[in-house]
Amino acid sequence: MTRAEGLAIWLGIIGNALLFGGKIVIGLWFHSIAIISDSLNSFTDIIASLVVYISIRTSYQAADSQHPYGHKRAQPIAGLIVAIFTGIVGFEVIAQAVNRLLTNDRMQPGLLPILLVLGVLVIKLFMHLYVQAVARRTGSTALLASAADHRNDVLVSAAVLIGVLFSNFGFPVFDPIVAILIGLWIIKAGFNIGRDNIKYLMGEAPPATLLESIQDAVRAIHGVQRVHDVLAHYVGTMIHIEVHINVNQELNVEQAHAIGKQVQAVIEGRDGVARAFIHIDPLAVA
């Protein structure tokens, strides 16, 4: 695990713990279901950050006899767990908001909830920007899921602020209504995070543009006559690719093997590519 990844994770754990404490106290004090619901979101964010921490540490472990291709699948597994937690929180938020509407329980007006939500919005925006920058620099899908979660929290905080402001202006029904909208947004966010990480676990093919650029690079290697049957898929967050090349059939085994190793080195030198498997076919050259 890099120092930047560790700092981003601990920022999430400590930041969410502080936000959870502040939200739950203010939410219960002023009877705001929107703030209480948001505090539950922060609580699951703490758990998610711990899962991300464990997954990233695991993903850096070297390959062993039980995991010959390494442990890179740990990160998308963590992303999927984050998605599940997110969806559960979304349903719980909606259930509590509907109950508040049915019981006609109202939020108490006050300046403190407004200041709290404004502070949360600023803190979450900073966390989103920082974690997103680290995720893009390191290619960590687990951190990318965390960054998306922080971004969703920014939007959720903005929605909570609207509900709290309307409640202070004499429209308390907006508090549970906003909470329902927050719940729906959280569920949607969980679905998106899960969808993005499932592709890494299912062995989805990488973008066609990447495969095309790899084929162009292979064709430029001296001794490669043709490139065909290019197949690739994700193994965790990394790509494994199989490439068939044609070489002059008059080359001896050592010469053909040297070309194959050069092709392998060029492909595995690409960012995101872990392994390249080269199949050499003979080709009659006039």
Q: Explain this structure to me?
A:
Strands 1-2-3 form a 3-stranded mixed β-sheet. It is elongated. 69% of the residues lie in helices and 11% in strands. It folds into 2 domains: 3-201, Alpha-lytic protease prodomain-like (Up-down Bundle), CATH 1.20.1510.10; 208-283, 2-Layer Sandwich (Alpha-Beta Plaits). It contains 8 helices and 3 strands; from the N terminus they run H-H-H-H-H-H-H-E-E-H-E. Helix 2 runs antiparallel to helix 3 (74-103), helix 2 runs antiparallel to helix 5 (141-168) and helix 4 (111-138) packs antiparallel against helix 5 (141-168). The longest helix has 30 residues, at 74-103. It has 286 residues and is mostly helical.
CATH-derived architecture of the largest domain: Up-down Bundle
The third-level CATH topology of the largest domain is Alpha-lytic protease prodomain-like
What separation lies between the terminal Cα atoms?
53 Å
| Helical fraction | 55-70%
Low-confidence stretches: none
Broad structural category = mainly alpha
CATH class placement of the largest domain: Mainly Alpha
Strand content: 5-15%
Topology, element by element:
Blueprint: H1 3-30, H2 33-59, H3 74-103, H4 111-138, H5 141-168, H6 174-201, H7 208-219, E1 226-235, E2 238-248, H8 253-268, E3 273-283
Parallel strand pairs: 2-3
Antiparallel strand pairs: 1-2
Question: What would a concise description of this structure say?
Answer:
Helix 1 (3-30) packs antiparallel against helix 2 (33-59), helix 2 runs antiparallel to helix 3 (74-103) and helix 5 packs antiparallel against helix 6.
